[in-house]
Amino acid sequence: MLFMTMIWNLGQSQSRYLQLDLNGGISKPMGTFANDFMFAGQGYHAGGGFDFFFNKIGIGVSGGLFSNKSETLFNDYIKNKYLEAPSNINSNQQWSTKYIMAGPVVKFGFGKFEVDFLARFGISQINVPNLIFTKEFLIKLMRYIDLAVADKNISLPGQVEQDLFIKSILGWAYKLKPIILLQNM
Known about the structure:
Blueprint: E1 4-10, E2 16-27, E3 43-54, E4 57-69, H1 71-82, E5 94-110, E6 113-127, E7 132-137, E8 140-145, E9 160-177, E10 180-184
Antiparallel strand pairs: 1-2, 1-10, 2-3, 3-4, 4-5, 5-6, 6-9, 7-8, 9-10
């Protein structure tokens, strides 16, 4: 996915400088999360961070949040399966992921273009939506949890899971002004 980022290089003319980063965009489910039974819809991503450079080599920290709605997809599923509109579903249920990562970065410059290579190590927290639909059949209340995840590596509904991860990123930037860059990562 394409994320456009604004970067501010503070004091780049010196051998040591700070690079600030604010980013955001659309979050669209991919891989296992794109399957219909995951009830993960389009959402948003917001993040930021900084890199402190010593010439062309630096160290950085970044973090962010992904949030994907699930209520509409779950409601549509219930309408198609049970032929009624659900009225007792918590509308605040959604997939959300928070992450923080840190690691080294190397910068290569070619005139107004720059290329950054980052290696990041971090931790993420995934909140799985607790989507529950209840229906009464002849005075017996039945509870349906239809976020039946087939992948054994995914948490059950309502749980929070934390994972460690390693990520490498290769991105480019174009200098709009000496201290402002437009970047793709």
